[in-house]
Amino acid sequence: MAAKNKTGLSGTKSERESLSEVLAILQDLSEDTRNKVLRTVAVFFDSPQFAEKHEHTPRASNPASSSAFPTFSENRQMSPKAFMTEKNPRTDVERIACLAYYLTHFRETPHFKTVDLSKLNTEAAQPSFSNAALAAANALKTSYLAPATKGQKQLSAAGEMFVNALPDRDAAKQVMVNMRRRKSRRPKRKTE
User: What is the pTM of this model?
Assistant: First the structure.
């Protein structure tokens, strides 16, 4: 058995070569970019050692994690304006879903009122809602949001998967089609 060196690798040629290649790639990156790459790799390989040190690294907690789009964001320090620009919502309802996602994952506010979404919309420098209450009600109807306690709302599982898929419109649309199919397959309860 080969002796372990200071990197903890046993010293086999493939391990040494792999480490050398990885270090050569990471060495040329800025510190921020290097940390972003390391966090992404840690989440991808479900390696808690590095991810735990960076609590803001989101976990792949979504059942669609095996789909074509990632379930984690690269930058948890992203401003609401940058997030909305990246996601590029096209309708008020999509914008509500994106704002709800931001509140849930970036502000650790899983339950919120429509006024919280409106304030975040202003902070994100988005166009004002003509009727924020109607947009939020429509987001509930289309399953992007779900009711929470005390008249509050929360991001639904479908809404989370939808926002994760953005800005890929086809993938986002497919998420909602799949969620509607699931709902229609459920047996209806008999009322007596």
Answer: 0.59
